[in-house]
């Protein structure tokens, strides 16, 4: 698939992000999207063809592969990339709504349509919560589907139509496990960045509200 849309989305939301948000965009773009396109996609490219079982029973190999890999690592990673990036569309749409509203009324309604205040701040916070939630959900999904974050060299399968327990071998298990660890590490880093940005914005807004209340009270 073409990743141009996701790249443009990340570049667009970068304009309205805080410093921590820009670091998150850089991590997603460089350490996840580019790594996926340049290296990871090729490692899992022929995973089904290179999955071998020591039996020629028709259908046995396909059934065993489906049992141990219900969803391909690389497809799940691609879905994760899409899901954690799309909440940023909420921010882009909200800014577009502000710009369209100003154009419709033919007057300046905001200091800057992309400034994080009021409704846009709420939208931004919601997008951070959604991104963090998706990251956690996919990490749990990876763990549950593959019984941990390891890629075994040998798996034993006794599912019909296999006549008995057969040994099946996964291609390039060490390389796949390294990339799987890299995936988990970058996901955890993104969760930390999202939570840091969420805390920073809430703290900043709370201080701002407190100062306004304090000034009004003493005036």
Automatic annotation (TrEMBL):
Record localization: Cell junction, Gap junction; Cell membrane
Keywords: Cell junction, Cell membrane, Gap junction, Membrane, Transmembrane, Transmembrane helix
Keyword Cell membrane among UniProt keywords: yes
Record field: transmembrane: 21-39, 77-97, 118-143, 178-203
Gene Ontology terms: cellular component: connexin complex
InterPro entries (alphabetical): Connexin (IPR000500), Connexin_CCC (IPR019570), Connexin_CS (IPR017990), Connexin_N (IPR013092), Connexin_N_sf (IPR038359)
Major location category of this protein: other
Pfam families reported in the protein's UniProt record: Connexin (PF00029)
Domain Connexin N-terminal stretches: 42-75
One GO MF term attached to the UniProt entry: gap junction channel activity
SMART domains, per database record: CNX, Connexin_CCC
Keyword Cell membrane attached: yes
PROSITE patterns membership: CONNEXINS_2 (PS00408)
GO biological process: cell-cell signaling
Membrane topology: Multi-pass membrane protein
Domain Connexin cysteine-rich: 134-201
PANTHER family, per the entry: CONNEXIN, GAP JUNCTION BETA-7 PROTEIN
Its biological purpose: One gap junction consists of a cluster of closely packed pairs of transmembrane channels, the connexons, through which materials of low MW diffuse from one cell to a neighboring cell.
Family: Belongs to the connexin family.
Assembly, per entry: A connexon is composed of a hexamer of connexins.
Protein name listed in UniProt: Gap junction protein
Organism: Thalassarche chlororhynchos (Atlantic yellow-nosed albatross)
Encoding gene per record: Gjb7
């Amino acid at each position: 698939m073409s990743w141009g849309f996701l790249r443009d989305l990340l570049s667009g939301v970068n304009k309205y992000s805080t410093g921590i948000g820009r670091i998150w965009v850089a991590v997603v773009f460089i350490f996840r999207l580019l790594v996926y396109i340049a290296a990871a996609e090729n490692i899992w490219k022929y995973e089904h063809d290179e999955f071998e079982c020591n039996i020629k029973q028709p259908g046995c190999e396909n059934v065993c592969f489906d049992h141990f890999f219900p969803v391909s690592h690389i497809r799940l990673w691609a879905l994760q990339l899409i899901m954690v990036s799309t909440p940023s569309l909420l921010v882009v749409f909200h800014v577009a709504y502000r710009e369209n509203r100003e154009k419709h009324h033919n007057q300046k309604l905001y200091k800057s349509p992309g400034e994080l205040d009021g409704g846009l701040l709420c939208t931004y916070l919601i997008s951070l919560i959604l991104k963090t939630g998706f990251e956690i959900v996919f990490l749990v999904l990876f763990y549950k589907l593959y019984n941990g974050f390891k890629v075994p060299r040998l798996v034993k399968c006794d599912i019909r139509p296999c006549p008995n327990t057969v040994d099946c071998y996964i291609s390039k298990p060490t390389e796949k496990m390294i990339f799987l660890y890299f995936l988990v590490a970058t996901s955890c880093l993104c969760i930390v960045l999202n939570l840091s940005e969420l805390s920073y914005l809430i703290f900043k807004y709370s201080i701002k509200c407190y100062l306004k209340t304090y000034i009004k009270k003493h005036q």
